């Protein structure tokens, strides 16, 4: 039997969802965040900072760029490489990290890398088309990482009352 749930995030977003459980209410919330402008930009941009892509721009030692300046030439192990070697090394790290991240869903790794390469070729550094399944999985990752803060889910039960206080 379907129930009504109120969901609220730390940044003030509040929604009401109809679902069979808190878990289903959360999944419905996530699926409705796919078109959120923040999620769209965060996931589809292939930039080193403040993006989903950032997690892949590293090697076993750490980030492949200096966090303060944003330059990879300030990282010793990168600075010492010539231009071709640097590009090949960074690309191999990105591909390895994407495949590792999506190891349970290799189709998503393939899709992400295809969009990454296409964005680089076009010099837009942005994905133009992810599947609906990829968007759902990536949006779930964004929510799970805490980009919405803690999500509070409260069941609204009007069986014995016509009033339910959500926050005091």
Describe the 3D structure.
The structure is a single chain. With 168 residues, the chain is of the alpha+beta class. The protein folds into 2 domains: 1-33 and 148-168, no CATH class; 36-131, no CATH class. The protein is built from 6 helices and 3 strands. Strands 2-1-3 form a 3-stranded antiparallel β-sheet, covered by helices on one side. α4 (83-101) packs antiparallel against α5 (106-122). The radius of gyration is 20 Å and the shape is elongated.
Give a nutshell description of this structure.
The chain is of the alpha+beta class and 168 residues long. The chain has two domains: 1-33 and 148-168, no CATH class; 36-131, no CATH class. The chain is built from six helices and three strands.
What distinguishing features does this structure have?
168 residues, alpha+beta, 3-stranded antiparallel sheet, 42% helix
- First-residue to last-residue Cα separation: 28 Å
What percent strand? 5-15%
Number of domains: 2
What helical percentage do the residues reach?
40-55%
SSE layout and pairing:
Layout: E1 3-9, E2 14-19, H1 22-31, H2 37-44, H3 76-79, H4 83-101, H5 106-122, H6 132-144, E3 151-156
Antiparallel strand pairs: 1-2, 1-3
Helix pairs in contact: 4-5
